[in-house]
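Can anyone check this?
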Amino acid sequence: MKRLLAVLALVLAMSNSLCAASRDAQWKKVDEAINKGLPRTAIDALEPIIQGALQDRAWGEATKAIARKIVLEGNIQGNKPEEKITRLEAEIAKAPKEIVPLLDTILANWYWHYFQNNRWRFMQRTATAQAPGKDFTTWDLTRLFAEIDRQFQAALAAADRLKATPIATFDSLLQKGSLPDAYRPTLYDFIGQEALRFYTAGEQAAAKPQDAFEVSADGPVFAPAEQFLGWKIGENVTDTDSPPLKAF
């Protein structure tokens, strides 16, 4: 039995290697089309990559191909952020559960980048009594930040599965840093760090409510590690949507 299993594993490994090699050629076609200014040709070339990667459970490659396709489609439609975000939301609705958290993270970052590129507009807007519609280009700062928060919370919701997913699973999508994976070994660590960048951003101060959660200098935030880890975060706090509170 062990011998048979070993042979099957070898055949499977060879099959996966051949699939990866064939998609390398397909990725080359995508890059060539983009370099020639042919986005529709590049999109057509991405379709078999997406299907093949999903079939092989190559989650990082599938996510990369989906995101690249959406960006190209958005560029064709005038490079409008709302085009890309709408298309990504549609992909999330039908994507396998293994890649949904990372797509949610990408969506949160696209909303965040939209704010950064249009900061001056949001700083001039005030909240209205009427509930905001679906057009995020008309939202005020509080509504936009609430949506980014919602996407990050959705991405982190399946914590157990994320903690069991090695970050190396998405090597083909993520840019390698200078430190080894041991510093952020799982998908949960990666998404958590992405969320922290948002929750600790200085712009959060512009959307504070009256009962905003405040960090106390003599509280557990600056206490030794054991005391901090024993802190019942959110206890007796009315501002439960506080970005610093979520960061902690």
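Reply from J.R.: I decoded it. The radius of gyration is 22 Å.
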